[in-house]
Amino acid sequence: MLNKITGITRAARYLGQSMRLMVGVPEYSTYVSHMKTAHPDQPVMSYQEFFRERQEARYGGKISRCC
Question: What whole-number distance in Å separates Cα of residue 13 and Cα of residue 7?
Answer without folding.
Answer: 10
